[in-house]
Design brief:
By secondary structure, this protein is α+β, with helices and mostly antiparallel strands. The protein has 8 helices and 26 strands. Among the domains are: 101 residues, Beta Barrel (Thrombin, subunit H), CATH 2.40.10.480; 105 residues, Neuraminidase. The chain is 17% helix and 26% strand.
Length: 514
């Protein structure tokens, strides 16, 4: 066994010429592997096909031409065949020496701002002085420096190690120092000192900003059309905290531990296997899903109502209105919005520090979720065209917010662009009775979705006050001391009864953040 393990170690060290496993992503000439939805392992092979191992993985160790080495959530070391033919347990209790031997060889070293390349078999090559953070994928070293009061992202291809070469330098942030970086195949995720995440994508040379979460985050990776944010567990493993969609989505083919992956037809094929399933069936035993009913659902509804969330009637059926309230609560605690509520979220709901409902949470460009959808609905109802009612604060929504700001005669802070931020004061006007008397005219050749419904898996509230189906404040302050019991445990009633969704609610993707 030791000889076999030594052979694997030597093979891995010879093949790994990519970045060290500084985060839950690995890249090499053999492909890219990362931890994605539900902590599943995802692998993009050199042909561009994405495959999934539907088992919870806690850390990535190394990768060669045949195997991906990873730790399960219980600390066992596995070798996953890249062709999907097998998953083999290497060790039930691996030593630190074994793990270090399997880890990818680092391609750079950053010490006191001095950045050097350390490619295997080559002498160290100086790259930059004063580097604040760095990361690398299989082909490029990325780093951030401060120049002229700005933070710039620069890149050095491994083929050119003589000096730092600025390839399409991008301004990383105006006033937030980068603290760490992680590189995927074509993108870089940069975490700033204030816990925001900036995503730079090389193909289209764009830089997007994602606001900080209300929960601790230790790493971020932009892969497969999503931004994944992670926290370290007590055992030192990675745990996905939240996944936010980017502009591009990649179809994934499943990587099963026994069934071989489908054959590749062309050099750059489109995956033809079954698309990756959305996480609609989380593993918690007490998870409650949309269209469930029973006492547990009724208690969840009552607790949401006590906290001020627009749950409607506490009738024991997890319907459309309850779905809206659950999503709003999930948004309030900084977790992904789903058509189910897990046991962990239920525990938070029944705890003494459960947040009360605040309908006026400030939104900004790049925000996503049910709160953005409600704002888009209200804008459309007043004649301001936000584009698709899709829960994404994008370019069309920015233009609609800018027009509404103009109608309110809002004076923006110096340096703030029109429409980029929807403040609490703006939302109070939008949802309340202080709407502008004369809205800005909308061009006649642009249809205004004055009554566009939410997607079919999230129907708009039917019992919420004006305007239309957007929850409207009454002018009363949000309660700060909910009447719910403190630290009350989640309901322990008998399992909820599963019922079939109504015909009018066809099966669609269940997550706002797929």
């Amino acid at each position: 066994m030791k000889k076999a393990l030594l052979f694997l170690v030597l093979a891995a060290l010879l093949a790994l010429t990519a970045a060290a496993a500084a985060g839950p992503v690995l890249t090499s000439e053999n492909g890219t592997v990362w931890l994605g939805a539900d902590n599943h392992l995802f692998f993009r092979d050199p042909a561009g096909v994405v495959k999934e191992l539907p088992s919870a993985i806690g850390d990535l160790i190394g990768m060669d031409a045949e195997n991906i080495y990873c730790l399960s959530m219980n600390g066992r070391l596995y070798a996953v065949r890249t062709d999907g033919s097998a998953t083999v347990q290497v060790s039930a209790a691996p030593t630190q020496e074994e793990l270090d031997a399997l880890r990818a060889a680092p391609v750079f070293k950053l010490t006191d701002g001095k950045l050097v390349l350390t490619l295997p078999g080559s002498a160290e090559q100086p790259v930059a002085e004063g580097a604040l953070a760095a990361c690398a994928n299989a082909k490029t070293l990325y780093y951030v420096v401060s120049e002229g009061g700005r933070y710039l992202l620069k890149a050095v291809p491994f083929a050119d190690t003589a000096a730092a070469q600025a390839l399409t330098p991008a301004t990383v942030a105006a006033a937030a120092e980068p603290s760490a970086m992680w590189a995927g195949e074509h993108s870089v995720a940069i975490m700033t000192a204030d816990s925001r995440v900036l995503v730079y994508r090389e193909p289209d040379r764009t830089l997007n900003t994602f606001s900080a979460l209300s929960v601790p985050v230790d790493a971020a990776v932009a892969e497969d059309g999503k931004l994944f944010r992670y926290a370290r567990t007590e055992a030192g493993l990675w745990q996905v905290q939240q996944a936010d969609p980017l502009d591009v989505f990649v179809t994934a083919a499943p990587l099963m531990p026994v069934t071989p992956a489908p054959a590749i037809v062309t050099a750059t094929p489109a995956p033809t296997a079954t698309p990756r399933p959305t996480p609609t069936d989380p593993p918690q035993d007490n998870t409650v899903r949309k269209w469930d009913r029973g006492n547990r659902v009724k208690r969840i509804q009552q607790r949401l109502a006590d906290l001020g969330y627009p749950v409607g009637r506490a009738d024991g059926t997890y319907g459309d209105q309850t779905d809206i309230a659950v999503r709003l609560f999930q948004s309030s605690i900084g977790v992904g919005e789903h058509t189910y509520i897990t046991e962990r979220v239920q525990n938070r709901l029944f705890s003494s520090n459960a947040p009360v409902y605040d309908p006026y949470v400030t939104l900004s460009r790049g925000s996503r979720g049910i709160r953005v959808r409600l704002m888009q609905q209200a804008l459309a109802a007043l004649g301001y065209d936000p584009g698709n009612i899709d829960g994404v604060y994008g370019t069309r929504t920015v233009a609609a917010v800018a027009a509404y700001q103009q109608a309110l005669h809002m004076v923006l802070p110096e340096g703030e662009l029109p429409g980029e931020i929807a403040t609490s004061w703006l939302l109070m006007n939008l949802y309340g009775i202080l709407n502008p008397i004369t809205p800005i005219p909308v061009p006649t050749d642009v249809p205004v979705p004055t009554d566009e419904p939410l997607p079919t898996d999230e129907p708009a509230p039917t019992d919420a006050p004006a305007p239309t189906d957007v929850p409207a404040p009454t002018g009363e302050p949000v309660p700060t001391d909910p009447p719910a019991p403190t630290d009350e445990p989640a309901p322990t009633d008998a399992p909820v009864e599963r019922i079939t969704p109504k015909p009018a609610d066809p099966a669609t993707p269940t997550d706002l953040n797929p």
